[in-house]
Amino acid sequence: GAGVSQSPSNKVTEKGKDVELRCDPISGHTALYWYRQSLGQGLEFLIYFQGNSAPDKSGLPSDRFSAERTGGSVSTLTIQRTQQEDSAVYLCASSLAKGTIEQYFGPGTRLTVT
Amino acid sequence: AQKVTQAQTEISVVEKEDVTLDCVYETRDTTYYLFWYKQPPSGELVFLIRRNSFDEQNEISGRYSWNFQKSTSSFNFTITASQVVDSAVYFCALSEYNQGGKLIFGQGTELSVKP
Predict the structure, then answer these.
(1) How confident is the model over B60-106, as pLDDT tens digits?
(2) For B47, phi and psi rounded to 5 degrees?
(3) CB-CB: which of A56, A103, A105 is closest to B44?
């Protein structure tokens, strides 16, 4: 079946602009996670959604970052007023349920802020 | 505090050699899960294995094996008879039961297998 998909695969934006990154989880997966991978910080958790519960936003680095998940499926990660330190690969993952079962990752969106 | 340490940043071996990737973790929880993921040059993270804190049995899957030891807080990964296709960055990760499944990753070990 189809895996996790993300779009765009690459995004170049100017400092100060807003960007939206999209994630389509595996069909039937109720839990969705966003991570960021950068050279300096490695792989970091950002936010996760589980069904209709309030998301866990504890990993978001600043209030410029937000995410939503519509209809329990597609998720959008928004970064406002981008900064150069936001340059990274943003990875989305989904799993069958919240908890400690395996997460399946998408190919990521490489964001470059110039 | 939760933490995962992969002390080996890079490892280079010749094909057919055995190689062990080390992973040491820290957690205060008694219920937790450990994972290994592979990230090949294509970039996509691939799930390899999950172990829970109550199951210390070692696991073998083909050329891959994992050694989980709670006494030393380690979850090491061995590749037997390595192949060029094993070249990738390998990440160890920890998830605590009450944290909703979010993964805490180690810094990764880049494995290069030369022909």
Answers:
(1) 899 999 999 999 999 999 999 999 999 999 999 999 988 878 999 99
(2) -70, 135
(3) A105
